[in-house]
Structures are given as C-alpha cells and as structure tokens.
Design a protein that fits this description.
Elements: H1 14-18, E1 26-28, H2 31-40, E2 44-49, H3 54-64, H4 67-76, E3 78-83, H5 88-102, E4 109-113, E5 119-123, H6 137-150, H7 152-167, H8 180-192, H9 209-222, H10 225-240, E6 254-255, E7 263-264, E8 267-268, H11 269-286, H12 289-305, E9 316-317, E10 320-321, E11 324-325, H13 333-340, H14 344-350, E12 360-361, E13 364-365, H15 377-384, H16 388-406, E14 414-415, H17 420-437, H18 440-455, E15 463-465, E16 468-472, H19 475-492, H20 495-512, H21 545-560, H22 563-582, H23 588-598, E17 602-608, H24 613-623, E18 630-636, E19 662-667, E20 670-671, H25 678-686
Parallel strand pairs: 1-3, 2-3, 17-18
Antiparallel strand pairs: 2-4, 4-5, 6-7, 8-9, 9-14, 10-11, 12-13, 15-16, 17-19, 19-20
Helix pairs in contact: 4-6, 9-10, 9-11, 9-23, 11-12, 11-17, 13-14, 15-16, 17-18, 17-19, 18-19, 19-20, 19-21, 21-22, 21-23, 24-25
Length: 689
C-alpha cells in the first residue's frame, strides 16, 4: 500500500520531510496556504519546530500521526508546518506572541492564526487528549472551531490587540551605555553563578558561552580573579559532566539538572562553535592544556560528523534514535565490559558506571549509564595510584574501543541543512582555533565553508540556507558570516575574506539598518512582510545579530578607519540601551562589543614576508596572547602597492625595517615606534591592554 504524502514531500527541510507522511494535510508557509484559508474562511494552525527537537517528535507521534486528530485538523484548519531553523523570522515573531499570551515558550510552538497571519491562540506541546491540566487536541480543536464560527468579532479584536502589543515592544532610544554597565553585568552574573557546579542559575542549565567570553574580557580589563574563576569552574564542570560526549566528543544541547550530568542529548552546530571559542579563549587566558584539548576535540567532532562533502557544516544531530532519547549515547554495564575487555572494571569506576545504571527515568533505574567524570583527571589518577599520563593513555584507548562499538548502533538523525549564520559561527571558531593552536587544518575547514557560501551568493545578497534561494538571508546570516570572515582574514591574511566581510557589512546596512532609530531589523527591507518587523538584541542560546553586528562594525571600523561604521555601532548601543540596562546579564555579547568600544583597542600591523621565519615567529607570539580587543592587519613588507591598501590605506607607509618582520602597534590611530622584536611588540600591546 502506497504511503500518503502531503505537500511537505516537496520541501528540502529535514523537519518538514519528517511530517510529509502525516495524515494532516500540511502546507509549507506560502501563498497557497493563505489563499486557501481566505477562500474557505478557515483559521490557520501554525506548527513550528525543528528536526532535532525531542518534544516535536513526541507530539508528531501522539497527535499529528493520529487519524482522529488529523481528521479534526483537516476539517477545521489550513495547517502549516515551519522549520524554525529555516524561518527564524517567523519563529521569533510568533514565539514573542506565545510568551506574551502564556508566560512561557518553547518547541513545538503551535499557534492559531487568522488568514491574514494574526495570532489569537498560542500553545507549546499539545497531547492528543487532555491530561494533568494540559489541554489536548481533541478538546481544543472543537473549541477553536466554535469560537471561529460563533465569536468572530471577539477573535478579530483579540488578534488585533496582540499585533498592537507587539508593535509597542519596539525599542526606544536612550543614552549611550557607559562603561559602568560592564561592572553591573559582572555583578549580575556573580549573583546568578552556581559556585558548586559552575554555570548560571539552576536546572535546566544551558552553556551560554558568551557569558564566559564576556567574563574573560572583564577579567582582562579589571584583573578580577573571581571573573576568571567563574569561567574556569564552568568550563571544567561541563567538560567532566554528561553534557559532554566522552566517547565521540562535542557537547549536548543543555543539562536537565544543575550539575551538568543528564543532558538533553541533541547536538547543535552553534553550541559547538560558541563553546569551542570559549575553550580557545580560556586556553589563551590561562595557558592550560585541558582547554586546548577540549576545543580540539570539539573541532574533531565537527570535522568528522558534521561536515558535508563540499565543506559546509550541518546543523545538528537528533537526541533520539530508534524512538528513544539518548539511546545512542548511554551504556549498560555489560556493554562497557564487553567493549573494554580487561580495562573494563577500572574504566567503569572512572566513568561512574554501575549495574543498576546512573540514568534514572521516571524515578526508576534503567540499567543505562551516562558516562561522566566525577573528578579532574589528576585527582582520578591519584585515587587509582596511576601516573596522569598512564591514566590518560588508558582513557584514550578505552574511548576508541567504546567509539568503535557505538558506531555499530543506529545513529540519531542528522539535520543536514547548511545554514549561513551557524556556518559563520563555525568559521569564526575554527579560525580562532587555527591561530591559538597553530593548526592549519582548521584554516582549511573554515575556508571550505566560507568559499561554499560565498560561491553561492547572488551578487552581494546571501541566502539563509546554502543553495536554497527561496529563503533570503536574515540579519544573523550577514552578521555571523562577516564575523567568521573577519576571523578568517586574521588567520590567513587573504585580503578577499576581509573584502567580503566589508561587502557583507555594507549590504547589511543597506537592507537591515533602521535609518530612523538606529539598530538592525532582523529581516531585510525587501523581505516578506510579517505582522511586525522586529529588532533583536537578547543574547540567548545564540548571540543576537545586533550584538555581533555591533562588534563587527567596531572591528572593521578600526581596521579600515571607517568612522561611519563606528558611528553606527554607537547608535546601536543607544537604541537598545533602555532595555539592556534593566537586565544587563541577558546581553553579554552586546557587553563584549561595549568592552571593545570603551577599553582602548589596538590595531596591529605586521609588515613582512608571510613565508619568512621571523614573520611566522612574530605572528605566533601575537596569537598566543589573550588580547581580545585588537585587530590585526598584514602588510607585505616591501610591496609598494599591495592589495591590502585598497581596504586599509593607513598601512601605506608601514614597511619592513631592514627586510625584517616589523610590528606597528597603534591605539586610537596613534602608533608607537615600530618593533622588529616580538618581545618589544608584546610590551607595546600590554601597555594598552
């Protein structure tokens, strides 16, 4: 018997394709759905999720695959499915509605709309039948149908009221934030900090790496050791916990408990990128090898499991396999012993494995174990009476055996979308790692992704998804990719990447900048018109496009002496200042941009021959220092008209001295005496950092 297929069968999104055989008559978001709703005078059932969302799978199985529910939906609504990762603009608007109407949000996100896209009902997970106070689909659909037929005036009034309330949320300009807000942000993070387990707040606990990178900058600025301790405590606790995949590397999405033990098992590309940057910067700040090791392991995971044949980075991996969350990642005692042989008993202790299982579900032992370390390696080695190097050797041998055994299991689903914004973050992370660890393979991986995306651009306009022209790019795509290209330029000094970063930034200003109030809209001026055009600044699981764009403008302004960029960065600070000042710890990427603006930043120009040993040594010395508020330009030392002069004219007379690598350290466009010695260069930099 041939399987039923709805209209989603023609889509490319893995999430939409997951629903292509539901008995629900799903439409993708588009004019066909809205025209049908208007013609037949039906409300719209809008369901938003993503392919690695566990509760999206649960709701699909319970409700959308159910014939009774589907019949009700098909008789009542025009039903639309949206992948939030493909259409973050829709997700942002309707999630704001859900949060205002219900006080909370999450995915799956389910909205009821009028045919002109105005919402009047919001919910997250909806079971088939009502239970424990949560309304079910079989109950809510008849209610909605009755309201639509018999109380239309009330529905229309509510929908109009909701849209008006969204319009009232537009940020109002304030004064430019002062440097004191950086201290307020630190104090709020200190108040939220979990001194026992690291991280901020209680369960569920998210990594939020931009909190940590802000704290590293605050520590560098003030010398406050507590800020550094908060970073180290968090990074070490996460690396020991079950949120880290000790077998195959990479971090899971978040911890369901306060101690980083029991993860929600999905893995997202953006988490890997942002966490790799945090561990890389912690290594530069402290010199501790464990941070380098973790960053390298994250990169290894991404390059092994999350990279397409043409070099783009996939979006994520599911939490579920064979219909069970975490099944791919957990182990029974017998499985551990079978895989590890004679070392099994010892490594059982190291990874806290027992017969009953350490992973409890519904208050019951399952026999399954999440691998985690209860102590740092040094202390475990001491407890076992082994040299640290010997224990690390045994752990790596055991990990390889476990990985080989795990590879025979059915893998979780992979979301193979190649999103421009998330690839931009990974390009930035790899480029930072390449510099910090002197690792050319990371440059190769970053270049493949960057070249893939830039190759598929129509002129200077981006797509949100590689090769998918139906989805124009959003602010995050421009801002995050420009970030990656700035980092890639500093890793390679290939002028084309800096040129592309500047071109993207100009295009971003042209289509996203608010000329009236300042700041960037999330959608372009020629994008599909939604019920409201939003500006985002909240730095949540991902930093906001405005926060990243603000720092890009400051960096590019310094690199190219473009005062207009710096002016727009200042206006961005002003437009969001009133909201930011109320809860500064929610805007830590924004605070990192402010830190760059307020703390004297440096421009470093290296003149020389990139292939010469003295130039390599000078760059190596520069890249081993944690000096986040600097930009670096390379100028071929004896070339009178190098390509870089087209973009960075002020380097015209910065030539090599006696054919030696020469560093020019500048602050606020005033330069110190050139240095041909790496030590002298660092002295000049440390004097201003």
């Amino acid at each position: 018997m041939e399987r039923f297929s709805n209209r989603l069968i023609y889509e490319k999104s893995p999430y939409l394709l997951q629903h292509a055989h539901n008995p629900v008559d799903w439409y993708p978001w588009g004019k066909d759905a809205f025209e049908k709703a208007k013609k037949e005078d039906r409300p719209i059932f809008l369901s938003i999720g993503y392919s690695t969302c566990h509760w999206c799978h649960v709701m699909e199985k319970e409700s959308f695959e159910d014939e009774e529910v589907a019949e009700l939906m098909n008789d009542t609504f025009v039903s639309i499915k949206v992948d939030r990762e493909e259409r973050p603009d829709l997700d942002s608007v309707y999630m704001s509605v859900c949060q205002r109407m219900t006080g909370s949000g999450g995915w799956p996100l389910n909205m009821i709309l009028t045919p002109d896209k105005r919402p009047f009902y919001a919910a997250t997970y909806l079971p088939k039948e009502s239970r424990f106070g949560r309304v079910g689909m079989l109950e809510i659909i008849p209610r909605i149908r009755d309201l639509w037929k018999n109380s239309r005036d009330g529905v229309e009034a509510l929908a109009s009221q909701i849209v008006s309330s969204l319009e009232d949320l537009s940020p109002q300009p304030g004064e430019e934030p002062g440097g004191e807000v950086l201290h307020s942000t630190y104090e709020q993070l200190l108040e939220l900090f979990d001194e026992q387990h690291g991280g901020f707040g209680d369960a569920p606990k998210f990594p939020t790496p931009h909190n940590l990178t802000f704290l590293l900058r605050y520590w560098k600025r003030t010398g406050d050791d507590m800020a550094l301790w908060m970073v180290e405590k968090t990074l070490l606790s996460m690396r020991l916990g079950g949120i880290y995949d000790h077998t195959g590397f990479g971090f899971h999405r978040y911890s369901t408990d306060a101690r980083w033990f029991a993860p929600h098992f999905e893995k997202m590309l953006y988490d890997q990128a942002l966490l790799a940057m945090a561990y890389t910067e912690a290594y530069l700040a402290t010199g501790k090898k464990e941070y380098e090791k973790t960053a390298r392991e994250i990169f290894r995971y991404v390059m092994r499991d999350m990279t397409s044949p043409d070099g783009g980075f996939y979006s994520g991996e599911d939490a579920d396999s064979e219909g069970v969350e975490g099944k791919f990642y957990v182990w029974t005692e017998d499985e551990i012993l079978a895989a590890l042989g004679s070392e099994g008993e010892m490594l059982k202790k190291v990874f806290n494995v027992d017969k009953a299982g350490n992973f409890r579900e519904g208050g019951k032992n399952t026999g399954n174990n999440i691998l985690y370390l209860s102590k740092p390696i040094e202390r475990l080695a001491s407890d076992l009476g082994l040299p640290v190097e010997k224990l690390m050797e045994k752990l790596e041998d055991g990990r390889i055996r476990l990985f080989s055994a795990r590879e025979k299991r059915i893998h979780p689903g992979k979301d193979n979308k190649i999103l421009t914004d998330w690839n931009g973050l990974m390009i930035a992370a790899l480029s930072k790692g390449a510099q910090a660890f002197n690792e050319p393979s990371y440059i190769d991986a970053a270049k493949l992704s960057a070249d893939l995306i830039l190759r598929h651009m129509p002129g200077q306009r981006l797509y949100h998804r590689d090769g998918e022209s139906a989805i124009p790019a959003f602010l995050d795509d421009y801002a995050f990719l420009a970030w990656g290209l700035i980092e890639l330029y500093e890793a390679t000094f290939e002028v084309s990447y800096l040129r592309s970063a500047l071109d993207l930034t100009e295009e971003m200003i042209r289509h996203f900048w608010d000329e009236a109030g300042g700041g960037f809209y999330f959608t372009a001026d020629d994008a599909e018109e939604l019920i409201v055009r939003k500006k985002e600044i909240y730095d949540g699981a991902l930093p906001s496009g405005n926060s990243v764009a603000m720092l890009n403008l400051l960096r590019l302004g310094k690199m190219t002496s473009n005062y207009e960029f710096e002016k727009k960065a200042s206006l961005t600070g002003k437009i969001f200042s009133n909201g930011v000042l109320q809860a500064p710890s929610a805007y830590t990427q924004f605070m990192s941009a402010l830190d760059f603006a307020f703390w004297p930043s440096s421009e470093v120009v290296i003149a020389g021959d990139l292939e010469a040993e003295d130039t390599k040594a000078m760059l190596l010395a520069l890249r081993k220092e944690f000096m986040p508020n600097k930009v670096v330009i390379f100028r071929p030392g004896l070339d009178e008209k190098p390509e870089i002069l087209d973009l960075v004219e002020f380097t015209r007379y910065m030539l090599s001295t006696d054919r030696r690598a020469t560093a020019y350290v500048c602050r606020n466009y005033t330069c110190r005496a050139p240095a041909t010695d790496a030590g002298k260069m660092l002295e000049s930099l440390r004097a201003v950092h």
